[in-house]
Structure formats: structure tokens, C-alpha cells
Design goal:
- By secondary structure, the chain is of the alpha/beta class.
- The protein has five helices and 17 strands.
Amino acid sequence: MKNPRYSRSSLSALGCAVLATLLLVACTQSQTQTAPATPQSKAAVTTTKDVYVVFDGPWAIVPDPKDANSILALAPKTTSHRDLVVQAWDKTLSSGIYTLSLPPRSGPAGGTVDPNILQAKIDPQNVQRVLDSKSERYAIRLPKPDAYVAHTHYRSRAGSAYPPDASTEKDYVTVVSLRYTVTTLSGFSLAGSPNSGAFNPLSLQVETPIINFAINPAHDPDPADKCNTHSRESFHDLTKLLNVTLFVDFPNDPAECHGKDPQNSRPVKAELAPSFLRSFFVRGSAGGLKQHLLAAIYYFGVQVGACRAPIIVGGS
């Protein structure tokens, strides 16, 4: 005859064992599902950010004659403009040669050019001459960008004869953004060799995706000037620096402006490069000053586009 107490005790023990087994299995599954990601899986997730390096003023952007992966932004230093300011660092630069270094990139560095940018063939020897001379000029060396993006447009004409033909009229880009796709906003630095004195390298963690190299007019625009004299003179100074024959004209200016235009012939003629690249931004309507929406948002509160002459992007 079976002992009831022993039977009940055996069943109770068996039930506890089964329950413990189920709890162990559930706990193991829970730990497997909520296990933290390993360092390797975290490293596999890479975020990218677009950063815009903006050039505002009388700039030409040309290939580096000694480095196919780099470009140079060149601008004259004149009495009609203030000193160059790098607004990300709020730093004023004297004339010289500087290098902007970027953090690791994930973009293609294809250098796609907006079709409203004035493109011209510029002799690499002229570029090297600008670098070798101790003339009053700024030179910024930086990597080839993913794209040259339009920020500000102004209606004008540009060509190798004066005055430029009406067929060259378009909304040329007057402020350009160089777009880079980077993996972090840390690691930007600026080093350089000014024509005189020393320069301490600058490091920066970019808080907004804009680094602006701005050369502003030395004086406010003259309300009585109907000829865009400052813009004509700025373009003249730039083409003189590059030793190329290019002129700018503004179709809405009075005809008598040609009589006092500071632009002259140059000893070397630049050929306008064919514009065969497709636009990836919508072109503005004809006439007046136009800004690209994205760049305008980043630039809220910053005065840009005081010079209405086109930016030049050069090739050899």
C-alpha cells in the first residue's frame, strides 16, 4: 500500500524541478535577446554628415598643380576688401598659403560642378606662379569636394571679349559651397604659412555644417553707384591675379558704365570650359540675387554675396 504523503511529496518535487527548468530556459532566452551589442557591431554602424565649405568674395577655385586630390581657392588681397575671415573659427587671416584638413570622408570626391558656375581653363603654370610669388594673395588648399554647390546667384554676362556677348548671360554663382560627406564633425584643422609672421594651427569641432571663408568689401555699397563698380573691380583684380582674359558685365547697368569700367585686356586668354554637367539643384529665375535654400538656412543672420561678380572654377 502506497504512502499518500510520500506520493504527494514526490509529485511536489517533480513539479518544482519542471518549473525551475522552465524558468532557466526563459532566463537564458531573455539574456540572449537583450545582450548588449559587441564593440564590433557598434563599429559597423557609421553615420555620415554633409559639411559645406563656403567661399564668399572674389575667389577662383582651381586644381592643385602638384596634387591631383587637392584644389586651391585663390583670391587677391586688395585695399577694396577687408581681410579674410574664417567664420567657423572667427579668425582673421593675413595673406599667405593655408591648408584646411578634414576628418575621414565617405563621399566620392567627384567634384560635380553646378552648371551656373563660371568655368574657365586656367594654365597650371599660372596657378603655380601665384603660389610661388609673395604677392598679396590668399591661397587655401583643401581636398577635392564631392560637389560645387550654388549658394548665391546674380544675373551677369561673362566672356573673353569686352563687353561680354549677350549670349553669355545667366544667373552666375557668386558664392559657392564645397560639399563634403564626412563621418564625424571632429577633426577639422587649419594650418598655414602667412607671408609674414607666424600662424598657430587651429583645431575645431564643427557645431554647424558650415565653414565660411569670407572676404567682405572694405566699405558699404555706394547708393549712388549704378554700375556695380565694386564687383567689376573685384573681378578685374581676380583675373589679373590669375593672368587670364575674362570680363564681367551686368545687363541691367546703364550703358555709360562701360566708359568707367576698371576692367582691361589681359595678356593670356582663358577659354570658357564647356558646361556639360547636369544640375542637381533647381536654377533660379532670371535677374537679381538668388540664394540656394539649404545654404540660406545655415547662413541665417550672416551677410553674404556682397560681391556680385561670378566665382571662377578653373581647369587645365
